[in-house]
Amino acid sequence: MRRPRIAPSAVVWLLLGAAYFFLPLLATFLFSLRQLQTGHCCTVASYAWVIHNSAFWSSLKLSVELALETIVVSLVLIVPTVYWVHLKVPKLRPLLAFMALVPFVVPPIVLVVGLLDLYKGAPQWFYGKPWGFLVAAYVILAFPYMFFSLDSGFRAIDVHTLTEASQSLGASWPRTLFTVILPNIRAAALAGSFLALAIVLGEFTIANLSQFHTFPIELQYVNETQAYAAGASTLVSFGITWLAMLALLLVGRKRGQRAAFIGGAR
Fold it and tell me: Per the domain annotation, does 20 fall within a domain?
């Protein structure tokens, strides 16, 4: 069997894309290895400072908690909605898609000013706490990514057949959703979840104007006070984000292997 031939132009474009992606990371890594006093290479003092910096990890913990809460709230709100639209009212799908584009049009600075005024009379546990106000804002920001990921997942399965088969066996609506529909859209839900995670870990404007010290705020503070440590902090945060994406890839690959095994057994 002959191996597929790779065009030289494809190799050139692949190398250019890799250089465009990795060269800034390499430059940041070399910059983070410089010594604070002399500016010469090489030392890992910046990474040691990041590891022992409690403010860095506490802000990262807060942002991760906000991301997890945003993911849970988004899934609880959007999954049943998209499921019902695909099952009962498919004509509303263009309307939902249009609404999902609104966060792309409205700048975050306009969004946060409007939300601060809207929730001004809300209880203090919601208005004055990050897991209340910020999560409400982050759910809006994550809505496009979560919706389009879930929408593609629902379009890839036969919602009507799965629902009818489940209900013919006596399953209720909640059981059909959790035991039949969700396992079939798990990859789409994970994709939207990790996109929401990336958004929350990188969002700066809303957290800054609402005066909550999240992970991007800490990174900006380090960037303004310690240049070399800022490079190390940026690479550490980049690595954390890519570890999350790697986890998504592994989960999706295991799901694909399991589906292939089941299909082969049949």
Answer: no
34 located within any domain? no
Residue type, 118: L
In degrees rounded to 5, what are phi and psi of residue 41? -90, 145
DSSP string, 151-173: HHHHHTS-HHHHHHHHHHTT--H
What span, in angstroms and rounded, lies between the C-alpha atoms of 136 and 152?
Answer: 24
Instruction: Indicate whether 4 belongs to any domain.
Output: no
Q: What CATH number is given to the structural domain containing 186? A: 1.10.3720.10
Collect all residues with Cβ–Cβ distance below 8 Å to 205 and sequence separation of at least 6.
108, 109, 112
Domain span including residue 236 = 54-265
* In a domain? residue 2: no
Q: Give the pLDDT confidence of 193-233 residue by residue, as tens digits.
A: 888 888 888 888 899 888 898 888 988 888 888 878 888 88
Q: Please state the separation of Cα 47 from the chain's center in Å.
A: 25
**Range list of H helices, the chain:** 8-32, 45-51, 54-87, 93-105, 108-118, 124-127, 135-155, 159-168, 173-176, 182-184, 186-202, 205-209, 215-225, 227-265
Burial of 104 (0-12, 13-18, 19+ CB in 10 A): exposed
DSSP 8-state assignment for residue 2? P
pTM of the model: 0.81
If one counts the domains in the chain, the total is 1
